[in-house]
Design goal:
alpha/beta, eight-stranded parallel beta barrel, 11 strands
Length: 417
């Protein structure tokens, strides 16, 4: 009886499920191919620049035999970029029709070759980028610069009391202001809003880019209004001293805005006046970029800028964060020259998180530590730790003069390789 039951159940199973060999286990459905995840490009290693003075101790553009030592030091330090000063005080170490080109002409006669072109060749052969470093609005102490011969004294900045810098004794503030204030950088300063100044400088640096098409970049310095210590927090407060009050500039402001420019007696319209002057510096940067790019597409534009963005914005009318934000600069190098390591750390971290922080280089005052080279190394390491796009050392000349400083920086570079 039990056997019949088993056969009956087996027959029922065959009817329902079919009989024969047991079916192989069902193969799993093939999974769809995993989507290809694009590989992220490797992070760009930070760059390292060296500022090279035109009138420092080395004067490499005047002494061709010193250029190989510059290249060797740059490579030993792990540098990628050279900021070579070629325009200072209205004088040029390159072929120029907008500056006093006597330094270039003397070097050319002595070397029988264009000094900047030769440096470019040697640096590029070593895979170093070269940026022509130019002092834009400062003429140092040169009261006879070609730009002043062409545009006249009205091109020079005027203070709030109506005094041209050309009237300052020794380019320092006259009494009684000198008891309480001082020029941060005594010099003959051009007013970026004065007639002809923007066009003159944009033309001069476009000529530089045209004459040296292998230049990797132009590096702007002194691209701001003059600084006065203590810093003036804005014209509306009517304290301290600021610049840009020439009659032509004031008339232009009033024509373009319909407002009266502030005076030493009144801070009315101060915010509008300050923004207008800030815009004039930004317009100059934009004009230099447009003119240089037109003759040398792809040339980089950078600037050495005041390390404290708020001070730069409010007191010097140098909106370098805005220049990065608007794409006027490829990168900005902040001149964070300090012996205060805590301050350096605070500021370096702030740059990384601010507008355009991915294009901020940190400039370090290596010369401050010629007798303490280990501190220069620590500052360089601190600047790298925040992930800045690059660092720059001021200056090659100081490093060349201090063998122990050079050795410490070279050893640090070797440890990082």
């Amino acid at each position: 009886m039990r056997l019949c039951v088993h056969r009956t159940l087996a027959l029922a199973a065959c009817v329902v499920f079919g009989c024969g060999e047991p079916a192989p286990p069902e193969a799993p459905a093939s999974a769809p191919p995993a989507p290809e995840i694009p590989l992220e490009p490797p992070p760009t290693p930070p760059r390292l620049g060296l500022w090279v003075l035109c009138e420092g101790s080395q004067r490499v553009l005047e002494h061709p035999d010193r250029v190989p030592a510059l290249v060797d030091t740059a490579l030993a330090l792990g540098a990628t970029d050279l900021f070579v000063q070629v325009y200072r005080g209205g004088r040029a170490w390159f072929d120029s029709s907008y500056a006093d080109a006597l330094p270039y002409e003397l070097a050319l006669a002595a070397q029988e070759t264009d000094p900047l072109a030769r440096l470019l060749d040697l640096a590029h052969a070593a895979d170093l980028r070269v940026h022509a470093w130019v002092n834009a609005l400062s003429l140092a102490s040169n009261r006879n610069a070609p730009v002043l011969e062409a545009l006249g004294p009205a091109a020079v900045s005027v203070d709030r009391r109506g005094r041209s810098i050309l009237e300052f004794p020794g380019l320092e503030l006259p009494a009684p202001d000198s008891q309480f204030l001082r020029m941060g950088t005594p010099a003959v300063w051009l007013d970026p809003a004065a007639p002809g100044v923007e066009d003159w400088l944009a033309s001069a640096f476009a000529e530089l880019a045209r004459n040296y098409p292998s230049l990797d970049g132009i590096h702007l310095d002194y691209i701001r209004y003059p600084d006065v210590l203590p810093f003036t927090p804005g014209s509306r407060f009517r304290v301290g001293l600021d610049f840009g009050y020439g009659s032509a500039s004031r008339a232009r402001f009033e024509r373009e805005t319909g407002l009266r420019a502030p005076t030493s007696e009144s801070g009315r319209n101060g915010d509008a006046w300050d923004q207008w002057r800030r815009d004039r510096v930004s317009d100059l940067v934009a004009a230099i970029r447009a003119r240089a790019s037109a003759v040398s597409p792809g040339i980089a534009l950078s600037a050495a800028v005041t390390a404290y963005p708020e001070r730069a914005y409010l007191s010097l009318y140098q909106d370098w964060r805005g220049w990065l934000d608007e794409g006027l600069l490829d990168f900005a190098t902040v001149m964070l020259y300090t012996r205060d390591d805590r301050l350096l750390r605070y500021e370096a971290n702030a740059y990384a998180g601010g507008v355009g922080g991915d294009r901020v280089w940190i400039g370090l005052g290596a010369w401050l530590f010629a007798a303490q080279p280990e501190r220069a190394v620590l500052q360089l390491e601190a600047a790298r730790d925040v992930g800045a796009a690059g660092q720059a050392l001021f200056s090659y000349d100081a490093i060349a003069e201090a063998p122990e400083l050079r050795a410490a920086l070279v050893a640090e570079a070797q440890r990082g390789r």
